[in-house]
Amino acid sequence: MAMTLTNELPPEAPIVAPDLTLTSLSEEVSNRVLMDRAPLWWWVGFGISFALLTVLIIQLAWLFIVGIGIWGVEIPVAWGFAIAEYVWWIALASGGTIISALFFLTRSPWRSATNRIAESMLLSAAPCAGLMPIMHLGRPGLFYWLFPYSNVMGVWPQMRSPLLWDFVCLLCYILMSIMYYCAGMLPDLATVRDLATTRSKQILYGILSLGWRGSVTQWQNQRVVYAIMSAIMAPMVISVHSVVGLDYAGGLTPGWHDTQFPPYFFFGAVISGTAVIIMLTILVRWGYSLQNVLTGYHLNAMAKVMLVGSLMLGYAYVWEAFGPLYGSDVADKTEFYQRLFGFPASLFWSEKILTVVIPQLLWFPAVRRSQLLLFLISGGIILGMWQERFMFTTASLEHNYMPSYWGQFFPTLWDWAALAGTIGLFLTVFFLFLRFAPIVSLAEVREIIEQEGPK
Amino acid sequence: MKDLFGILAVFRTRDGVTNAAARLRRSGYRAFDASTPYAVEGLNRIIDPGPKRFLPLLMFAGAVFGAGLAYWIQYWDEALNYPLNVGGRPYNSWPAFAVSTFEFMLLAAVAAGFFGMLAASGLPRLYHPIFEAKAFERASRDRFVICIEATDPSFDAASIRALFEELGAERIEEVRA
Prior knowledge:
With 455 residues, chain A is mainly alpha-helical. Chain A is 70% helix and 0% strand.
């Protein structure tokens, strides 16, 4: 086995529980999909999520009827919650691809049981990210003007703009993620098909699995394509989030106009994406009693990735401060002092504590073993990253070059409704994934069971 | 009575199935295939899985096509169709076009790989005669299955049964479809 980031296998912490067999793995995971009645916690969680989703629908309806004025955005702060949350959501989604694709390439054994959760999370977060800029457009019905399509107006998008790059990136990213998810999912859907007992489920999963037989040819093609796809997805996700950074770096606003932002944004994606996957993994293994598949080994490994992410983020923060403080641009300095000591200072400092200081607890193995602490630290990181994206977006616009042009952003109730609503959309889609698709990559965990030795 | 499609044997372990496949190959059988719950290493050296380099090359071709198309759209738009002078930058500003070219290149490569994988694997194919076998359904779970098709020139039901029994098959079944 190749050396990997988390290649420590103490005997007391196996990757999967030693009593797990090929038979029990398939049955345990597939039965969660095939059971006739979802458990109570699923209905409670889905109900809350769906309630939040209706908030989004109401918010969208009011936004489309009245217009973007229902939000707190105006000149000078024209980028408010929607753009900050776009970055936040796309960072969470990117984290899913990082866990899934990057650690497939490093052959990390812990990736196999968690990659499906990561990919389901990313496919739930990506629509939330995509919705945000469309809501922000003001004329959301005309978003298709971003496509370079032949039209009678003779108007074409400006291909040199980072905002258009961003649109291309997000579109490509979502399409590629769907194909990546399906390519890995095919054999597992065949397992569900073969375990299904009712006719309707046999037909449904029979169609979804496209008639997968697990023949030698099919396996070879699937493994070859999946490996190359992973090698493509890993740089892809780095480019996607870097281009989000370019949206800002391409602007001439103090605090944004800095070449470090593409990697800065990517570091944020590593930490926040891993954090949300850790939270979901803890909930899934508790809710579906999959403690023997999703073990402490997985949480330990992801906690280390999160720790590395917080160190990378801390490094980026140093350079974020170094730029304005070492440079001679008065506006840059003024804007940065505003973040440090001005109105957004409480957000600034609490965010640094949540995303860089508290995660240092993860150096202690005892913390990495405690699910409660991991859950709280992860939640803090996600909250902190939201603060960071929000402050990064608004604080710069609030303190532009001309003091006469300064302003202050205050979110309205509808801003918060958009946030709550997209969380609802995210959770609703994730709960549906949880109910209707195997939440663990069976084919890959089988290989791990076989590698760990005969039972 | 339906026609005989082939004879299927179920093995408990991956070693069982690789041994059996190697033995069948040595005994002169050609039209047989294995179905396994995961990609068993070594089986693809015994049972010919088709060309291995085809899909990577297809993905590469997809990447070249995607990059070319994306660059062409941008070049045509910004330099030929609607030239717009932005800060004196050249109409064909390739550094600005590189991002979309890169993304579209990867999208086309992944799409070529995904659909190429389905096509090369003969999917979607919702019905296959082997689905008629009762024993086959565990091949997607915890058993390793080999099926010799009746089209094999040296197909002989009795000797195949004997061979499978000798190889330690857990279960032997005639597939009729």
